[in-house]
Amino acid sequence: xxxxxAEDDLVSRRMLEAILVKWNYEVISTSDGLEAWDAxxxxxxxxxxxxxxxxxxxxxxxxxxxxxxxxxxxxxxxxLLTSKxxxxxxxxxxxxxxxxxxxxxFDRGExxxxxxxxxxxxxxQLALADRVRVLEEALDKIETLHGLLPICSYCKKIxxxxxxxxxxxxxxxxxxxxxxxxGICPECIEKYIKPQLASLEVAAEKNxxxxxxxxxx
Length: 217
What we know:
The chain contains seven helices and seven strands. The protein is α/β, with parallel strands linked by helices.
């Protein structure tokens, strides 16, 4: 997974880079908020960012607020690095849109645990975004029937927009993703098919009782 670092202190940035690379993360390193903002707005951006609270260009709080105002299916998961320890400072960071925070100087075990939490959240977001995309593609393929449809009371044909009469199944197939297979319902079997079969049987019996010259034997 790619992780963005935004830290203006060179020593802290190098140390953080080394730790993340050792943990097999791909690191994108920046030295201020503006550079970090640009790094998140490229094709295939890093899904997780570790931002210093105090940095030039755009501080961590401003960055989070601006990021949360940006509409995207998969917003970056943000961890704020801060030397601030007051409860109101932590609340301010979270309310600005940070997902998590860690105090400086950070403990490596705590940092790794918080990154792993972020990874799980990112994976869930990506899975959800994939499902949303599939649903949107499916909805794009659906054509909805609506409005008043003139239909013949006898043959059940539908009059289309060009004033032509079409078979019901033809019209529906053209205006939706539906496909038809034909069958006979039980009611129609009783009402139409069985009487027709009975008539055919009677006719067959009459034909069997006739001589070749058409007289009844």
